[in-house]
Amino acid sequence: MNRPGTEYNLAGVMGWPVAHSRSPMIHGYWIDHYGLSGAYVLLPVAPERLANALRGLAALGFAGCNVTIPHNVPAMHLVDRVDAFARRIGAINTIVVERDGTLSGYNNDGFGYVQSLRDAKPDWRAEAGPIVVLGAGGAARAVVATLADADARDIRLLNRTPQHALDIAQAVGAVVRVLPWEQRKPL
To answer: Model's pTM, two decimal places?
Structure first.
């Protein structure tokens, strides 16, 4: 579906570096599959140019973009609005250019992960048993918070840098237990 007043939708992934991203290939497939008029492109933006790049999205006709490392946290402070979930976890991964040109930030990493679990196993329930999460980067923070919101009772978080995992556990709550990276074998 095209944005009102346009015949062509533009979106992309903004990061530094970003050339390795497969997002244009994935999104391009779905754009073609559904016969949409638009493109999803790489947006390599150095950190010191992030503010200018974000403000340029509306002027260039972008419907929005995804942001990836190292922009997930800084971009959150440069958009006009941040939804409550993204604010809670401290990072955004999606920016929508609103009709008035303002920018809204969201984080959909956790939702996408949980939805993939439900797609693969429709009877999956977060509260059914322990959940192990390996890694404590930005996406892991969103995944852990979303699992907790889905009523998970026992999330076991393992990371090579224990402090990153402890930070997530503190932010999400008692449902998260941090275990040593050496215990990443099947529990």
So the answer is: 0.86
